[in-house]
Amino acid sequence: MARVKKRSALDADEPGLDISSLIDVCFLLLIYFIVSTSIKATEQDVNMKLPSPGAPDENNITQPFFIKVDASGNISVGGGEASELLDTDPEDRKVPLLSQRLETYKQGCDLSGDNPVVQVKISGDAKQQRVMDCLNAISKYKITSVTFTDLLDN
Fold first, then answer.
1. How confident is residue 42, by pLDDT bands cut at 50, 70 and 90?
2. Residue 38, Cα to own-chain centre: how many angstroms?
3. 3-state secondary structure string across the chain
4. Where are the domains of the chain?
5. pTM here?
6. Residue 132 CB: number of other CB atoms within 10 A?
């Protein structure tokens, strides 16, 4: 007499889990979130030309606009005794006072027909985010001639 396995018949009767509709729902949710998400650019495209080695441009007779970023995140403009402290809150990424000065400088250069030039002095301990805030403000007014310097007086 042959033995008949009764367990194999019981295994075939167990219900299965069909996950094909779950996969469809997951893909639909993924597509929804990809399409509905807006990508916010936190930094602007900084389109600046750095000075080339060699003789300076003779066409540019305007005074450069000096910006200094110190270790504590303070931004000042001008050099030497004429230095003026503008933005002191390192958490304010929009640098409103610097933006106003840059706008005035850019308008003055446009009226006189000169090419605006900005010189930036950065303290060695300055946070790079603060430097990027300054560069974003510079590029907002389409100033493309930027020089990093160490010639400004403290």
1. low
2. 17
3. CCCCCCHHHHHHCCCCCCCHHHHHHHHHHHHHHHHHCCCCCCCCCCCCECCCCCCCCCCCCCCCEEEEECCCCCEEECCHHHCEEEECCCCCCCCHHHHHHHHHHHHHHHHHCCCCEEEEEECCCCCHHHHHHHHHHHHHCCCCEEEECCCCCC
4. 65-148
5. 0.63
6. 15
- Tokens 């985010």 correspond to 129
CA distance 99 to 136: 10
pLDDT digits (tens, 9 = 90+) for 3-41: 655 555 555 667 777 888 889 999 999 999 988 887 776
Q: What would the pLDDT profile of 68-92 be if each residue is shown by its tens digit?
A: 999 999 999 987 778 899 988 988 8
Q: Are 116 and 62 in contact (CB under 8 A)?
A: yes
Considering only CA atoms, give the Rg of the chain.
31
**CB within 8 Å of 154: residues ≥ 6 apart:** none
CB 119 within 8 A of CB 149: yes
Among 42, 41, 40, which residue's Cα sits nearest to residue 133?
42
Architecture of domain 65-148: 2-Layer Sandwich (3.30)
For 13, the token pair is: 């009767």
- Rounded to 5 degrees, what are φ and ψ at 73? 95, 5
Amino acid residing at 82: A
